[in-house]
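Working notes for the structural subgroup meeting. M.R. asked for a predicted model of this chain before we commit to crystallization trials. I am recording the input and output together here so anyone reviewing the notebook later can reproduce the run.

Input as submitted:
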Amino acid sequence: MENFHFFIACEDQLAKALCIKLIKYALPEATYNEPIVTGGSGELRKKVEPFLKIASQKGYATLLLTDLDQISNVQRLKDTWLNKFNVPERFFLHICVREAESWVLADAEGFSSWALIPKSKIPRTPDEESHIKERLVHMFRKYSN
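Returned structure, recorded in token form:
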């Protein structure tokens, strides 16, 4: 498999860590630039077209990571962001259902062990939490050092 140099953009610092982890896991030989952290999905969406152009160049790939938030489904978000573009093979748009925090908390045992938060305090269905970011911060403040 050909190695790529990735350009990465995401919404926040947690998503940044997840992007790096995804690349290191899936393509350990790949290189990447310092990820762009946009602060939200609106700013990230503005980066789609330039990232599509980068991904069309030989030797380069792009990874964007966004939250689904309140959009009804993944396909609707993809259609909204990408419908007018020709999407290159090395353009990767990953969507966290519902939020990046949900991805992290879905591994309750691993997260509990890492964060020293009792597993019983971690939501069993993090995607159904209406304010998962706030819940995560609260858990850290209360149980972790």
